[in-house]
Amino acid sequence: xxxxxxxxxxxxxxxxxxxxxxxxxxxxxxxxxxxxxxxxxxxxxxxxxxxxxxxxxxxxxxxxxxxxxxxxxxxxxxxxxxxxxxxxxxxxxxxxxxxxxxxxxxxxxxxxxxxxxxxxxxxxxxxxxxxxxxxxxxxxxxxxxxxxxxxxxxxxxxxxxxxxxxxxxxxxxxxxxxxxxxxxxxxxxxxxxxxxxxxxxxxxxxxxxxxxxxxxxxxxxxxxxxxxxxxxxxxxxxxxxxxxxxxxxxxxxxxxxxxxxxxxxxxxxxxxxxxxxxxxxxxxxxxxxxxxxxxxxxx
Length: 299
Fold this sequence. Notes:
Blueprint: H1 2-28, H2 31-57, H3 72-100, H4 108-136, H5 139-168, H6 173-200, H7 207-219, E1 224-235, E2 238-247, H8 253-270, E3 275-282, H9 288-298
Parallel strand pairs: 2-3
Antiparallel strand pairs: 1-2
Helix pairs in contact: 1-2, 1-4, 2-3, 2-5, 2-6, 3-5, 3-6, 4-5, 5-6, 7-8
């Protein structure tokens, strides 16, 4: 599966980036770089969790899990959010200590060069994961990619802060950057958790996707009397959609079944992988079209 291969790539890249960032920290002694490296620890842990969740999520439905295993991805995403929060707290603690006990930085030029290699690797990996997550509809890969992009922004902030340290000689700018990164990471962790929990609570599909379904039903208004009870949710890459479809009571069972198949195919063209359940209901006695057809039959 492409998403599993992408998760393996993310894990390998995360380990490589982590090694480079800790090397940059050991060279410079910068708490800002240490905070950036701590976020990479989270990246590696998250990549491991994402890989495991994707291996589970792609399993087909079985007797114990008739709706599949797609929600394993959201458990992965929520776990990543909590790891991000813990990393943010640890970074704030390390930065506070550096305020109390300032330490001179060293080998900044070499350390920043090593950090630049790690940042470029993160950026290229994030772009790759975003492309695969979009094609596969994987929230775990998307969360991993967004996290890496935030890591890139964090690294750019570290560059800016340490550049000011190098120009001004003010060593306290280093923990200031660490504190800013710490609060930024805390905010990111809260966002990831909120989104994951929201999906686990079976929130509706994004408005643009629901609009596609309603537009398809509107395109068939000549064949459909009405519809109601439209519901949708997502589990991994699979979208579950169900609705009640009111059809003309003059249709045979075979004709109604053919129409439903056509609607399902049309919806899957717009939302690949959708699992669709349609409950068919006959129109009421006040249906004008059926009254006209009955009158024609009588004559």
